[in-house]
Amino acid sequence: MIILDHTAVLALCRGHRLLSGLAVVEVDDPDQRAHVPALCLVAATLELPGVVAHVGALPGLEFLPLDFAGAAAVEQTVAAGLGWTYGHAVYAAAASAVEGQVLTATPEVYDGTGVWAVDIGKP
Q: Which of 26, 27, 65, 93 allows an S-S link to 59, with CB 3.0 to 4.6 Å?
């Protein structure tokens, strides 16, 4: 599963070529699309208003809700020292039936989380 954290969502909105390619390709199977955790979407829109409307119109993205189990996991991750803006991406990668890859502009943040962070470069 490919997961975009808030830094990747911001890069997408600022024209990142690779991410733009992922986001505009419509795939019939939702599991083959890039996934955006809800809290990552919130974090991105707090930094760049209008993000939700922009990425919501892209056919290649799936949006991951945050349920009770997810909220509890994010709480634990944040209590362990990770910023809340990254917590839902960590949970999404760990809870996926398929190993999740988090696309991010800040891969060093994921050190020690057990998450496979893929550096997209600085936006």
A: 26
> How far is CA 103 from its chain centroid?
7
Q: What is the pTM of this model?
A: 0.92
Contact 30, 19 (CB under 8 A): no
The span from the CA of 12 to the CA of 28, in Å, is 21
Burial readout 52-77 (b: 16 or more C-beta within 10 A, e: otherwise): eeebeebebbeebebeeebeebbeeb
Q: What is the pLDDT of residues 73-123, one digit of tens each?
A: 999 999 999 999 999 999 999 987 677 899 999 999 999 999 999 999 865
Which residues pair with residue 101 across a beta bridge? 2, 116
pLDDT digits (tens, 9 = 90+) for 61-87: 999 999 999 999 999 999 999 999 999
